């Protein structure tokens, strides 16, 4: 899955990020730079800026806030890699793997604060306050969902709605908040904010569904993280639960064994790949993601100048079947 | 060391804290409640409220912000106990010990966001924004100092100024920010904000010096955390560095061995206790804390109604020689 971001924005966002995280003059700043650069897709700050533009605002006015959101997102990834004990992130060693767990914990905390400083730096005060409240609320939902996710480990019977709730909290909430914050900073009406909120939630949900499909649709290296990570952590994801629902008795029994016992991760991943494919679960999950994107597009009708928001939404599901 | 807090405020602050952290309806909220209650000394929120009052503001207007600062502080303690691998906090099992490291990490992140939500909840927008910026800046300094602290482990030659810089970042910055935020929310003049900033920094420095003296001045149980923790982590603190500077060759050699080799923590603590006592380091550190408190008192002359701020400052060093 490649997100084609709005190219002219990338150098602007990257320059803004560098303004807020220092030049690597101490260990903490070195972890910030390592986690942020080379940057990922910058989906959240791009959506924040484009949402501001979509309601008549300017990129300049919202860039510090957008960079702050990216800092919060990357901080959450640093902590997520501690929680999941993932040694790889974006194709490189994770911060925990490189610097140690205590250092990664502090790196995430510090980068989160750098993000808040960036978000709070601008004006007018009432708009900044409203936008920050939305982002903070999303980050609370993210923590709740990450905690819930650890509780769902090994639980193949938790059901599709429970996994969709985790997806909304873990990923869709912040993506939606990035859109809302941009609109609020850009001076949107209440109805416009509500439209970008729904747009962002749908795009975010599709994004996470596609992310959970990566181990079953692309080569390991392209995924940027270990393809066997979810299976190794016995983390049930949407394609696995859809497969369980559609599967016959033998496949169900195999999945129960894989998610409950000590099965070698590589063997486990190969078997799960086989089951999610032949039960049609991969196709069904991809279909749900596309439906989300269609619904997201419909929300854009309420905006005066949706610009690249349609293209950004489409890019999230571009590589999927 | 007992801080005699302003009694009528305690139930108000505790009720406000409960408003922001939920009722324990999921694992995340359970960790919040366990970390917050029974509450500690509530020094930071108390100072925040008293600083607002000292410049003519009301407790009611600043209570949500004050509760938010306590959430951020307790979140930092949860993470600190992961970094230091401390099994005990406030005389009970730490969150990491009780719930696991991943859960404690998410508990700290979630409680931090609950704190931000509380801080951002009030108005007027320009004052809330100014106060939040000060707190966020302090939290950045705290992360930097905690990271620096991990780098100073085993380093007996880092020098007193390096340890004082850690103390300022790790503890004094947030205590000072709590005072400044209260004053800003209470409508203080620039000069008044500057006075409470210095007051808070001095009180915070004295507070941490006394905290670092606890293993050498009070019984383990009263300290609320393991008396051998700093020595077990080979973390040089102010009394140890003052002792090293004042010590003869034999004592220095003993300290170098303790902080560089695998010495049994109980034996190590007994030996360090002996050295910090007979070199006069304990007395000297306590003297520095008292000097800070005297200087803090002097700052109160600039405030129209300092009220309990003098008493709060005095209480920080009340139990020390």
UniProtKB/TrEMBL annotation, chains A, B:
GO BP: any one term: isoprenoid biosynthetic process
Stored SUPFAM superfamilies: Terpenoid synthases (SSF48576)
Key words, A-Z: Magnesium, Metal-binding, Transferase
Top-level taxonomic group: Bacteria
A Pfam family annotated for this UniProt entry: polyprenyl_synt
Record-level Gene Ontology MF annotations: metal ion binding; prenyltransferase activity
InterPro entries, alphabetized: Isoprenoid_synthase_dom_sf (IPR008949), Polyprenyl_synt (IPR000092), Polyprenyl_synt_CS (IPR033749)
PROSITE patterns the record matches: POLYPRENYL_SYNTHASE_1
Family: Belongs to the FPP/GGPP synthase family.
PANTHER family associated with the record: GERANYLGERANYL DIPHOSPHATE SYNTHASE (PTHR12001:SF86), GERANYLGERANYL PYROPHOSPHATE SYNTHASE (PTHR12001)
Protein name stated in the entry: Polyprenyl synthetase
Top-level taxonomy: Bacteria, Bacillati, Actinomycetota, Actinomycetes, Kitasatosporales
